[in-house]
What we know:
- This protein is mostly helical.
- Helix content is 98%, strand content 0%.
- The protein has one domain (1-70).
- The protein has one helix at 2-98.
- It starts with a helix and ends with a helix.
Amino acid sequence: KLVAWQELSVLKERMAEVQAKADAASRAQQEAMAEVEAQYDAQVNALGAELESSEERHAETAEALVAAQRELMELAASSEKLRLQLAAAKRQAVTASLN
């Protein structure tokens, strides 16, 4: 009977050791998962910031393009106005030379 109690005691000790190792492994796994989640969150945040920055640059580029197109249209209108003025001045010069 004493041997059975000793064996039971040894088994309880081994069971406690196994449980302690399992608890430590579980804690290590939870810490590793927390680290993975933190890295994932950091990457997601970085990608979000990069996307937002890219969208801002795209908007700025689009605004600059619209401004450049507007300026080009104004220059074209001004050029046409000058062309018409030059043609009128030539007609006046021809008319003046005929008189």
